[in-house]
Write a structure and sequence with these properties.
heterotrimer, A mainly alpha (305), B mainly alpha (270), C alpha+beta (378), A: 305 residues, mainly alpha, MetI-like fold, disordered N terminus, B: 270 residues, two-stranded antiparallel sheet
Chain lengths: 305, 270, 378
């Protein structure tokens, strides 16, 4: 009882609206870069813009058009397909890598640093690395595949291109999931593993009942980050394939950029950006509330004594 | 049985590291080759070892200034991010206040906006306040996604520090500012290390905003790299060397915070 | 079910230990008999948890052997040793219900379902967990969680021994007492060797038949709570057991007898013999605060001392006196009155113990094993 009481007391936050003074600088700074551009985009989305001085108010016309546009529907579907594939590969692989990481000594630091490397490379350089690495003539990966008799060419074959972008994303971002899970695993006290040994738990039972429950929080973060970022992926495939061949790797961001900058269809592009933003927000929100709701119903059991 | 398990684990780890390092090695390998060798035949290491690609970069101000620009705005971003995030995270970890939950979600939602269409408003906004093509513009713009992340990580670490510490310090007669700097910040130094790592990571790797908000004076290295596409095709060697050089600051940062990261990862929320 | 024997056991957490301080456990021999209820008592850092983890197989000792009955089990894992252990802080499987938690060790040894159910119900009843069997373990309070941890330790019947590593640290005081009684009861029912690590002498004395007191990586005394109180083998035992601990008087010896400063003290025949056989200068006399006698008038062999302070502690009072520059504590009955600052003090020779180099010497031979324990340490 004592332990629980102490825990609760430290966790209870004091209601104090003066705390806003501490938050204010941060709020102003972020609001400057967030709210004004957002309002500008909302403004665009309601107008037909010819040039800087000529614009007509068109109301929700762009939104109606965007929701009927099949090109954007295809793009959206491709995007969901890609994000889903990314999550299905990177989350389990990240967990597996975290489980394999050494836990102490210089090996732990070394592995940590090596794993962090792909995360610290500018995104267009990531594209460049894979652009070179996967080429059939001068890249080790493409050259090896071709010499093994696999007909692989990411510049002409749509499937190859899509798979290459996926592989690149796995290479680039699995480390993030792995590092997050590694931190979750380190937070498990030794006593849990010892108790499991004493209780004769199998390695699978240790993973299922000790490690996985403790990974839940970091996995929520990992899934959210990976979903958001993969859904908005732009730079890497743009450098790697330029969206081709055809439209096989033209993801949503790129479609939007083409509309906004290439064709100067700012109005529809803005409208679709907002729809797109709302989709990401909605998916994240649903995911987030489902998780917190699950936790709440778990905790609810405690009270119906 | 046990040793068998361990060696299996190590083998798996080893294979994954190879997967991570091989593309980077290939870039490194290419950066020491001449273009003739790169395009001639596939070699696993440079047979005709050359530093010319690097010399090209280091002797041309328009090249190396790109690095200086990138590092300048990343450093500025890091300082600004920490300055505003530390008090904010403290407020979130210690107090309840009107709108705290909404504010937190709003912060995170800033990471969800698709960048493409927001580039134009950003350009207009920073031009109108006279910051276009300055390091500060990029640093401020990057705060949009570094600050939410920093607040979120720091809040996790700060919640781990018992509130009794604050109370004891106030009883001992510390003012808030004194307590915060002298006592509290050292206690969450690992958290700050991890935050610095992530802030650096997201600012250094970002290209779209950085490219849009700069033209000459503050142009980042990643934007300058597109120059290697010339009339005679791509200068692969220089491109590879430039790429390798963009990886080095990252390595330095991880190296400096490695102990914090290892320890911080163990304690904090991330 | 097993007798646990430790032979020449030593352990260091360093890879290349050189000094004796590098060792958490030093040259330790001990036997825990099958079916006994033992306490391993000592201050923090004395090596008691290390010793426990060596017995359970979580730590491999640097030197020496662990035997279960006749078999050396050094290379055995905890499951091969068939040990149950309860840790200081509650370890529960968050994602499982209480019932699933209790069933977990039984499921892992592939017990039939019906038997698991019965056993879980039995243990839950014993520890009063029946009401919360269907709750998720993570929603329990800290002491409920610890009860679940303990129940998981007790649920398997066939274990060689059950080890407790300060299991009641997070428990409320009144519940603590109840659980200790429960453990004792369970011990009587199951006839399993139980080893209980604690730093609390009261906890040790109420749970265990025999206590092993550890200090700096060694067991300095093993005996019943009464033996530890009445005949501390080592000055540390005297200091650690009892509240307050033993008073120690540094002494010097000469032809005529033993002295504290210029005051001559009377010692027994055996103690004089023991003194003649040593050349050590590290000589002390020890006496428990309970055994010092105070009186208002001078008696034979009494010393006049001044009273520094008196504390009333309910059933007794604690008097601090100045014995020729040495502060000593005396426990006397509450009804005794101190009229002036001056009292007279007597050391009953039966309770005056002689320590040479911190170890007890010069005691009359006793019929129990206490004497042989002493020899081990000299």
């Amino acid at each position: 009882m004592t332990g629980a009481k102490v825990w609760k007391r430290t966790m209870n936050k004091i209601p104090n609206n003066k705390a806003w003074w501490l938050v204010l600088p941060m709020f102003l700074l972020v609001a400057f870069s967030a709210i004004i551009p957002l309002m500008t985009v909302v403004n665009y989305s309601l107008q037909d813009i010819f040039d800087q001085n000529t614009a007509y108010f068109v109301g929700v016309e762009w939104y109606q058009e965007v929701l009927r546009d099949t090109r954007l529907h295809d793009s959206l579907l491709r995007q969901f397909g890609f994000s889903l594939s990314v999550l299905l590969i990177e989350i389990p692989l990240g967990i597996a890598v975290a489980l394999m990481m050494p836990t102490r000594g210089w090996q732990a630091s070394a592995v940590l640093i090596l794993l962090a490397l792909p995360l610290l490379i500018p995104w267009n350089v990531v594209g460049t690395i894979w652009q070179v690495f996967a080429r059939g003539d001068i890249g080790l990966f493409g050259w090896t595949l071709n010499n093994l008799g696999v007909d692989y060419n990411y510049t002409s074959n749509s499937l190859d291109a899509w798979l290459t972008v996926l592989l690149m994303d796995v290479w680039h971002w699995t480390s993030l999931v792995a590092l997050l899970c590694y931190s979750g695993l380190r937070a498990i006290p030794d006593a849990y593993y010892q108790a499991a040994k004493i209780d004769r738990a199998s390695p699978w039972a240790v993973f299922r009942y000790i490690q996985l429950p403790r990974l839940k929080n970091v996995l929520v973060i990992g899934v959210l980050l990976r979903f958001m970022d993969s859904f908005m992926i732009y730079t890497e495939p743009f450098v790697l394939t330029g969206g081709g061949p055809g439209t096989s790797t033209t993801f949503l961001s790129q479609t939007l950029t083409q509309m906004a900058i290439g064709q100067f269809d700012i109005g529809p592009a803005a409208a679709f950006s907002l729809v797109y933003f709302l989709i990401v927000l909605l998916v994240s929100w649903v995911f987030f509330t489902t998780i917190t709701h699950m936790e709440k119903s778990d905790n609810g059991n405690k009270h119906d004594k | 049985m046990a040793t068998n398990m361990i060696s299996k684990r190590n083998l798996g780890m080893f294979m994954y590291l190879i997967f991570v390092l091989l593309p980077i090695y290939w870039l490194l390998n290419m950066s020491f080759k001449t273009n003739d060798e790169i395009l001639g035949q596939l070699t696993l290491w440079p047979t005709d070892f050359t530093l010319n690609n690097y010399i090209t970069i280091f002797t041309d101000a328009s090249w190396y200034m790109g690095y200086v620009n990138s590092m300048t705005y990343v450093a500025m971003n890091l300082v600004i991010t920490l300055l505003v995030s530390l008090p904010a995270a403290y407020a979130f970890s210690r107090y309840k206040f009107v709108g705290d939950k909404h504010l937190f979600f709003w912060l995170l939602s800033n990471r969800m906006a698709p960048p493409a269409v927001f580039l134009l408003p950003f350009f207009q906004l920073y031009s109108s306040v006279g910051l276009f093509d300055t390091h500060l513009a990029v640093a401020l713009a990057h705060c949009l996604f570094t600050v939410p992340l920093a607040v979120w990580i720091l809040e996790g670490f700060m919640s781990g520090v018992p509130k009794e510490i604050d109370e004891t310090a106030y009883i001992d007669g510390y003012s808030f500012g004194h307590f915060f700097i002298k006592i509290f910040i050292p206690m969450i130094s690992s958290g700050i290390g991890v935050t610095a790592f992530f802030t650096f990571m997201f600012s250094w790797v970002e290209l779209l905003l950085a490219r849009t908000l700069t033209s000459v004076d503050a142009k980042p290295i990643s934007a300058i790299m597109t120059r290697t596409v010339g009339a005679t095709g791509i200068d692969w060697g220089v491109l590879a060397a430039a790429g390798v050089l963009t990886i080095i600051p990252g390595i330095l940062v991880v190296w400096f915070v490695r102990n914090h990261v290892a320890k911080g990862f163990a304690l904090g929320r991330v | 079910m097993a007798t646990i024997t430790l032979k020449g056991l030593a352990h260091s957490y360093l890879t290349n230990p050189t000094k004796s301080q590098d060792y958490a456990i030093q040259a330790l021999d001990h036997v825990w008999k099958q079916g006994g209820a033992y306490a391993l008592l000592g201050p923090s850092g004395c090596g008691k948890s290390t010793l426990l983890n060596i017995i359970s197989g979580l730590i491999n000792p640097s030197e020496g052997e662990v035997l279960f009955d006749e078999q050396v089990v050094n290379s055995f894992s905890p499951e091969q040793r068939n040990i149950a252990q309860v840790f200081q802080f509650p370890v529960v499987y968050d994602a499982m219900t209480v019932a699933e938690n209790l069933a977990f060790p039984l499921k892992n040894i592939k017990l039939p379902k019906a038997q698991i159910k019965d056993k879980v119900a039995e243990i839950a009843d014993l520890l009063e967990l029946t009401d919360s069997l269907n709750k998720k373990a993570k929603n329990l309070s800290a002491d409920q969680k610890q009860k679940v941890s303990m129940a998981r330790g007790l649920v398997r019947e066939d274990v060689s021994a059950i080890l407790f590593d300060e299991p009641l640290t997070v428990i409320d005081p009144n519940l603590k007492w109840k659980l200790r009684r429960k453990l004792k009861q369970i011990h009587e029912q199951l006839n399993i060797t139980m080893l209980y690590v604690t730093h609390d002498q009261l906890e040790a004395a109420t749970f265990a038949d025999e206590i092993a007191l550890m200090y700096q990586g060694k067991i300095v005394q093993f005996g019943t709570p009464q033996e530890l109180f009445e005949r501390p083998n080592h000055t540390f035992v005297g200091y650690f057991i009892g509240s307050p601990g033993m008073n120690f008087i540094p002494i010097t010896k000469s032809q005529a007898g033993v002295y504290y400063k210029d005051m001559q003290l009377n010692i027994s025949q055996q103690q004089q013999v023991a003194l003649q056989n040593t050349s050590s200068q590290n000589l002390k006399l020890g006496i428990r605060p309970e055994f010092v006698e105070l009186s208002a008038r001078p008696e034979s062999n009494s010393f006049a001392v001044s009273v520094l302070s008196v504390q009333h502690l309910g059933s007794y009072q604690l008097v601090v006196i100045d014995f020729n520059g040495l502060e000593m504590q005396v426990r006397v009955a509450e009804k005794m009155q101190f009229s002036g600052a001056q009292v007279h003090l007597v050391f009953p020779s039966k309770w005056l113990k002689l320590y040479v180099d911190e170890y007890l010497v010069g005691e009359p031979a006793m019929d129990d094993g206490g004497q042989s324990m002493e020899k081990n340490h000299e």
